[in-house]
Amino acid sequence: MSGPRFRRVVLKLSGQALAGDRGYGIDPEVVDALAREMKEVWKMGVQMGVVVGGGNIWRGVAGAAKGMDRATADYMGMLATVINALALQDALEKHGVVTRLQTAIEMREVAEPYIRRRAIRHLEKGRVVIFAAGTGNPYFSTDTTAALRAAEIEADAVLMGKRGADGIYDSDPNVNPQARKFEQLDYLDILNRGLAVMDSTATSLCMDNGIPIVVFTLDVPGNIRRVVMGECIGTYVGRDVRDPRNTERCRRENEENGGGLP
What we know:
Order of helices and strands: EHHEHHEEHEHEEEEHHEHEH
Strand content: 15-25%
Number of domains: 1
Mean pLDDT: 91
CATH superfamily: Acetylglutamate kinase-like
Helix content: 40-55%
Oligomer: single chain
Low-confidence stretches: none
Distance between the termini: 23 Å
Radius of gyration: 17 Å
Strand order of the largest sheet: 4-3-5-2-1-6-10-11-9
Structural class: alpha/beta
CATH class: Alpha Beta
CATH topology: Carbamate kinase
Largest sheet: 9 strands, mixed
């Protein structure tokens, strides 16, 4: 392929993506490896926004389940995403990547407030923009943040990098060895089947705005670049998946490259 398939993307990273094998906190080596991969894509001229979760530090839903006020618990989760975003920004800039950190909750000492037009201008100037603090509102996940920011900046796709999963399955492959992986899905397939990919609000937002979603594994170096280039790894979600020739092509490519797994 002569150039990237996606020219402007939102990369969604879970908090666990920064934690590595620990499952909690921030692993500097893992963050550094992610930064190196992102630099490779950045050098290709791809405009990249990044939304990072905070589950490696705090989960608002978990706090609410134990009796905490839901709004308070969610605001704590938003602050956790800012911690992760600062760590990622530091790693990227150590590798020479120009970045801007924008937060939905104003904290001018550490980041810019989120302003859509300013974010787009940063992207046009070749800066990686990290979106932190979710949407700034409780009851909304960082998946919804990724879909919302993608719609606002007119991104070509939402790229969902996962640890320990190479796509979307009809059941948990860690529990059911017969679980079937999907190469391509329509948005309605996710909603109707109740597949645990992203929350329904985020899926609906992508569907309403025609934004493709690619779910892939971060366990293999280089996969972010491969997804941006349009290689068939992981699972592609979009409106243009009904052509059986595309499904068959992606099935073959997934088999040839192991779905992006080692």
